[in-house]
Amino acid sequence: MTKHIHGGDVYKYDHCLDFSANCNPLGTPQSVKQAIIDSVEDLSDYPRVGCGPLKEAIADYEHTKKEYLICGNGAADLIFSLSRALNPKKALLPAPTFAEYEQALISVGCEISRYYLKEENDFCIQKDYPDVLKREKPDIIFLCNPNNPTGITIPQDLLEEILETCAMQGIFMVVDECFLDFVKDPEKHTLKGKLEKYPGLFILKAFTKRYAIPGVRLGYGFCSDGEVLDRMEAVTQPWNVSTMAQQAGMAALKEAEYVEAGRQIIFCESAWMKEKMRQLGLTVYPSEANYIFFYGPEDLFERCVAKGILIRDCSNYPGLKKGYYRVAVKLHEQNKKLIEVLEEVLS
User: Fold this and answer.
1) Cα–Cα distance between 129 and 43 in angstroms, integer?
2) Distance CA 148, CA 144 (A)
3) DSSP string of 97-112?
4) Contact 100, 4 (CB under 8 A)
5) Across-strand partners of 257?
6) Closest by CA position to 112, among listed 2, 232, 233
7) What are 140's strand-pairing partners?
8) pLDDT tens per residue across span 254-267
């Protein structure tokens, strides 16, 4: 099996400023840290099975029904449990996209077909995608919106056409909205409002990026098909969400001002970084999320590491080659350091 490489490998590159993982630039909220500290008093008890209070808090935050929710040990945990629950025989995946979809599907013996995103289209899904679905006839599809690593959203009219095509063709549709919190007007891009009408739709989200808590591992999903959620729970061990994670999640959901402050920083800094990177001769794509996708010299990763900057080499993504990279949008002084290093290594 292919070894998957991820961003955020700060243990191997502990001397570097990490631009390879994409989280809220403001760091973990103090209230979340305190909730984790306070949860130590409950470590002698098993975690709450089913995450009832956390689900209620998420349902209120997301304006959806508690019955539609399932929680997991990060979004990746839910990708694997959904794959085990549905046991699909054939899947269609965009290329490039998040590696865990393929990893989870292969673990249940699923055949993978790819829809290659083209550079001349800025790596965007095109209007022919519904026709490809009809031709390929997969059991399941995964779409990342905005996509990882490109950061580009799918036009809403096309996304809804894909959803309708999946419903007509009996295809289960998974939409990963984990990075949607960092685009402008996220409510214009989400499919949450379609859940009741389309039981074959599953939406993924996570606390990881929004609250900068990748070390906690907490994700959640929405689906109006209770049988699918029951089957997912049946293939998952009952205490998959720790007491600390549940308490951290409930504290995090109260941090509305923090989330908006992080979003505004990203909008401002992303525009500044893109302009500076283009001036350096890099090919910068129109990423809408809290990271920037670009093309540069094939040895740029090594040059940056030597200067104490860790960027994400995207050459291991299917559909990409050496020279494609992704960098997180961080605080201005950190972003300034990245640009200074890029100027130095590209001169």
Assistant:
1) 48
2) 7
3) --HHHHHHHHHTT-EE
4) yes
5) none
6) 2
7) 91, 172
8) 999 999 999 999 99
